[in-house]
Amino acid sequence: MVTVLGAGSWGTALAIVLADNGHHVRLWGQRQEQMDEINEKHTNEKYLPNIHLPEAIVGYIDLAKALEGVGTVVLAVPTKAIREVLQRVRTCLKQPITIVSVSKGIEPDTHKRISEIIEEEMGEQLQDVVVLSGPSHAEEVSLRHPTTVTVSSKNMEAAERIQDLFMNHQYFRVYTNPDLIGVEIGGALKNIIALAAGITDGLGYGDNAKAALMTRGLAEMARLGSRLGANPLTFAGLTGIGDLIVTCTSVHSRNWRAGNLLGKGYALDDVLANMGMVVEGVRTTKAAYQLAKKMNVDMPITNALYDVLFNGKDVKSAVDSLMARGKTSELEDLANISL
Fold first, then answer.
1. Distance (Å, whole) CA 184 – CA 188
2. pLDDT tens for residues 69-89?
3. Catalytic residue selected from 190, 210, 286, 327
4. How many domains does the chain have?
5. Residue 205: which residues within 8 A CB-CB, separation 6 or more?
6. Where on this chain does NAD(+) bind (predicted)?
7. Residue 139, SS3?
8. How far apart are CA 7 and CA 270, in angstroms?
């Protein structure tokens, strides 16, 4: 028995993987009509249209009942809701649990990664935290298209247990990586670059601009990540360049779609209101901007996007300012990524 907290597209897609692997899944959400749909029709049309859910997935509106007796909980709620949900979880639990974090972001102001927030909120009721991340659009996972992800934890035995829990030899392959910091930072920061990639596409700048943005964006990700203690090689893997590619190039990506609308001239508030789902890159841009300033790490793409999102800077002017930066050596710049 596994409980998934969060019945959006990603939580539901992972519930499908778990059900396909023979597990009974309790899928918790806060809207009664959505849970009724899952239980009666075996669909979740708002988030995964035209997908039939296995009957082993049962929707729960009562959090205490959803958590009763389970040892593993998948946390798939938006990052801004994580503390609130964990505080509710803590009051319901009667047993220690392993939490699998599948959300991607950094908390503004505290600059904490999701695993750190979980540890802080759960205390002694937490057995282990395992992070699952990688290039994985929920829409494609729900269609059982081949997907590969990574799990990481301070306790690699726990990571291997979660690897076994999710591994599906037909379509869902899971690797392990001991670099928890790198896995989380890569998953969070790629959303920033995806927003920027959407902006360049919205401006009509083409493939040259996007390739440059992704390459230089990856350097920014590795620069900040390595300063925080990550292994730079992690950013050459699934949770670095892998997640960056899929998020910057696919219409499934909310962050790319939001950036694309910004590039076409829409206001941020209108973009967010029309998306229908959370755009994690907006919140993460604020956190990464603050953290880069604190750590004295050069992140020009992040800085430019921050000016667009929070200071009202025109998107074309932001791109122009990036192109007008002083000349530098690519290899000298990459050498600043500490090994």
1. 6
2. 999 999 999 999 999 999 999
3. 190
4. 2
5. 319
6. 6-11, 138, 254
7. helix
8. 25
